[in-house]
Write a structure and sequence with these properties.
The chain is an all-alpha fold. The chain is built from two helices and no strands. The model has no long low-confidence stretch (mean pLDDT 86). It comes from Candidatus Sulfotelmatobacter kueseliae.
Amino acid sequence: MSDRDSNSFVWFLAGLGLGALVGVLYAPRSGNETREALRQRAEEGRDYVRNRAREARDQASEWADRGREVLGQQKEQFRAAYEAGRQAYQEHTAETGTSKNL
């Protein structure tokens, strides 16, 4: 870890500790109320993360389905182009009298 990164991390930890100290000193509620509020916020956060994860999973599934659809279309276009080329080759060889099987 570089000096800059470790220095930034130390300042982050110092700010975190100072914020916790100020929060405890100026807390407008009792310990039980604060714990209940924290528990409620944690549950709200957990629900938010679950919802976002579900939305992300749905979006990824949608993208995967769309990708499969596009891939299928590309496959069909390639198959049609191959068959058209093969047909043109067979017609050309029939006209000229040369034959090679593909």
